[in-house]
Amino acid sequence: QVQLVESGGGLVQAGGSLNLSCVASGRTVSRYVMGWFRQAPGKEREFVAGTRWIRSWTYTADYADFVKGRFTISRDNDKNTVYLQMNSLKPEDTANYYCAAADSVGGLDRVKVEYWGQGTQVTVSS
Length: 126
Hints:
This protein is an all-beta fold. It is built from no helices and 11 strands.
């Protein structure tokens, strides 16, 4: 079992930045695909960003079109942690952000998510 705990959410003005963190415990997740989804009130949960192993400790990142150029995902395997740096935030980015992981090398937007965090709220005021 893998436990995921997010932190870093909060209230920020439009144009501001936040950095989300997700710490994994229970297993080493260096070969796991990890990333973030979000869910706004009344909307379905949607993929935001993911980081996955491709070879020899090399990782690639995948992003939803609506965050490209604004959000950056990274991971620190020594700390079993994945980060989401969010810049140029917009009111439409307001949502509960969930950390997700799967024992897979496929993209997080295509594989079945096996583990979810509890979520951290991000609110962007206009």
